[in-house]
Known about the structure:
CATH architecture of the largest domain: 3-Layer(aba) Sandwich
Low-confidence stretches: 1-25
Radius of gyration: 21 Å
Distance between the termini: 16 Å
Shape: globular
Mean pLDDT: 88
Strand order of the largest sheet: 6-5-7-9-8
CATH class of the largest domain: Alpha Beta
Amino acid sequence: MNAPRRPAGTSASGLALQAELPICQTDLPLGWYQPELRPYAEEYLALPDRTPETVLPWLDRYVRPAQEHFGEALLLLAHFYMGGEIVKLVERYGGAVADSYALALQAARNPERKVIVESAVHFMAESIAILAGDDQQVWITNPKAGCTMEMLAKDHMVLPVADQLLERYGDELCVIAYMNTSGRLKALAGRTGGAVCTSSNAHLVVQWARAQGRRILFVPDQHLGRNTAARLGMDLSKLAVLPDPQVFGGGYALDDAVVAGGLAALDAAEMILWGSFCGVHTIFSAAQVAWWHAQGWRVLIHPESPLEAVQAADGVGSTDYLWKQVLAAAPGDKLAIGTEGHFVRNAAALGAQRGVEVRHLAEIPGSASGGCGCATMSRNDPPHLAGLLDLLRKGAAPDLNRVLAGDAVDELSGARDRLDTAERAALVADARRALEAMIAITERG
């Protein structure tokens, strides 16, 4: 799990820097940048083009001095879903690109890395911070980079409902918090004797809870919860789905009017699903899978997608699974992949080097749903990376970019709610318990 530095120009994933950096991501307006980062954005936007010949020398002016200043103490990270240029740039400068499980472990597995800079989303950086040592700092290039699923499961929405469920079921209830949640919800999982999970290990974590005879509150993705239940052969009639938070918000009273099937369905449920979802993955359908099958393509899909699409596909798994499937494909293979758009474009670039065709599952005739991927994750870009590293080197990095466990950041305004020292210590203890339970379950396998 270590993330050793790599020489400039090399790539862990095999993605070479091509003729152009931008894949789908567009330049952000100046108003989207924090005041401290705006000068870097102004320089970037003034560049004559976005080719490596132009962008890389500009980035080198800021990234190389920061690397020389911090040496081996600096670790750069990105998630597979980031815009293609950030994935390639983080790798070019010796960083690591991985899925959310591997990212969460980076601080704990690399104690010599004292300054960790993540170009991904806030909940991922916070997971790293929960497991980090006291002498490690975690920074995020853009604190407004978020996740639509996590935005539909904020602690102020989930906790009042969870309190009612705990009052109703007591110690029988445990919370399984998907990695795509804040530290405040991961702490709820820890307090209830539950665990965190990712898309790659959800089946192991849910089975672990079932073996204890626990009733599960699965937060936040109802599709991953449903797909996991189907994978384990659970009776899907014993799943209760809580209301769509886009309609009901949070903090509602649990009664027959808001719960599908009423409280009787809740009491009969083996697993209760929070009603949110990932907007990127809900666009996939069994009809799309059938179209690609008719063209002779193999279909792979992420388990945050609707059950019908998952059951129709040839393979289902996490971003790590999907990436490895591209690496394992033989020349001439054709893969339609149902997941975030930036990932598919990066996978297509990798596949092209191997003679493998890769396309986005939703890109079929008559469909306009392929899109550019997750808009909130795309808020990390070269000016954020260059600016934060330069300011860190100068000792002038904005405090808003520092990530501590328990931080809650508004994705629109950038306003942050930070816990006091005692509250944060209590949260870390509970959230770490849930993360460590996940790690133990996963490594037992």
